[in-house]
Amino acid sequence: MAQLPCGARIGLLVAAIVFVVVQMRLFAAEQRYALRATSAVESEEDCQKELRKLGDKLLSQQTTLVYLEGEKGRLEKENGKLATVLEDLQSNAQVQKLSGNLKQGQVAAVVIMTCNRPEYLERTLKSVIKYHKDVAERFPLFVSQDGTDEYVMETARGYSEVNYLQHLDDNPPKTKNPGELIAYYKIASHYKWALTQLFNKRGFRRVIILEDDMEIAPDFFSYFEATASLLDTDKTLLAVSSWNDNGQDRFVSDPEELYRSDFFPGLGWMLTKSTWEELAPKWPDAYWDDWLRLNETRKGRQFIRPEVCRTYNFGEHGSSLGQFYEQYLKPIRLNNVNVDWKSKDLTFMEERQYNQDFSELVAKAKLVLASEALREADFGEGDIRVYYDFLTEFKTLAKLFGIFDDTKVRSSCIFFTFVAFIILCNIG
């Protein structure tokens, strides 16, 4: 190096100095990067620690949530049990209250059966309440709803006079035969439930059943009050009805006339608790009204019905799909005379006296052939009687006079006014 020129030595020295400076800067940069890397690692570890803490906290919260859900379910079950107990206590208190009321002249509970026709129910309630306010203590008013239609519920609860019942079927009925309407099964189930509520849980001695498509006559309550004691004491009676299937305007005249019939009219009827206790265990799954008309159900017992109806059925649309409405239901005459039934002596409706009086009436009526019945009714004098044997003869006579020709309505004796008093007697 001593042999190198001075300029070269200076160049080498400068290069050495530059190299040292560069190395020092590189070392400093590496130190900075190392510190940053160490800091990043530490930050990552801190983040992982925080994530683990959050995970542990979330797991703890999830465990708490599961526990709270379980507690919620348990409390709901407890609330359900408490609600049932409370309902039973209230029911027992109501029974005791009603039992006390029975001693103060209570006649019968009145229940309107409804499902999903709020407009119909509104019309029925207005008609019933119009005449109910003066007899409210003697005839507690109920509406029993089958199902959850909110408008029906609002309609029923909109009247302070109404006690509201709701039937919720945990095990919906099923039809037994192809082509059947499930509605008839639901109706039978609802009827059984409602009557059980009123007779067994609320302690009524009698119940009057209406439907949500009926209007009532001014003397509706008076009529049932007058016949209540007769229904209690006469064991040859099964029920009292406010309806006459042949109560069309042209066939009726006397608002004070009553009859005994072996055909169940329905459509506004009253039965006793003792009768219900007999019927309830055998109550059918469907077609309850047809079942009540069977001989094995009636066991020879009869029904009281008026000549002029105390109920009017305006239900053109319903489970029966408007069957017979225009021809047979729409022309029904609803009584508009306020008969003072309390002043009437109804002992003539007792079986022995009634049978005697009616036998005399039949015997005095002129016997005519079926082929001459219409002419004799139009132009003859006095009452007439016509005997028939077969169902085909009955349907022919029914169509001849325009009365209900459904064979389910056929009774041992059918009587109606058609200028003369007509008696159709079944000898089959």
From TrEMBL:
The keyword Isomerase does not apply. It is found in: Golgi apparatus membrane. Transmembrane segments: none annotated. GO terms for molecular function: alpha-1,3-mannosylglycoprotein 2-beta-N-acetylglucosaminyltransferase activity; manganese ion binding. It is an enzyme of class 2 (transferase). The keyword Membrane applies. Its EC number is 2.4.1.101. It catalyses: N(4)-(alpha-D-Man-(1->3)-[alpha-D-Man-(1->3)-[alpha-D-Man-(1->6)]-alpha-D-Man-(1->6)]-beta-D-Man-(1->4)-beta-D-GlcNAc-(1->4)-beta-D-GlcNAc)-L-asparaginyl-[protein] (N-glucan mannose isomer 5A1,2) + UDP-N-acetyl-alpha-D-glucosamine = N(4)-{beta-D-GlcNAc-(1->2)-alpha-D-Man-(1->3)-[alpha-D-Man-(1->3)-[alpha-D-Man-(1->6)]-alpha-D-Man-(1->6)]-beta-D-Man-(1->4)-beta-D-GlcNAc-(1->4)-beta-D-GlcNAc}-L-asparaginyl-[protein] + UDP + H(+). Pfam families: GNT-I. Keywords: Glycosyltransferase, Golgi apparatus, Manganese, Membrane, Metal-binding, Signal-anchor, Transferase, Transmembrane, Transmembrane helix. Its cofactor is Mn(2+). Belongs to the glycosyltransferase 13 family. This is Alpha-1,3-mannosyl-glycoprotein 2-beta-N-acetylglucosaminyltransferase. The lineage of its organism: Eukaryota, Viridiplantae, Streptophyta, Embryophyta, Bryophyta.
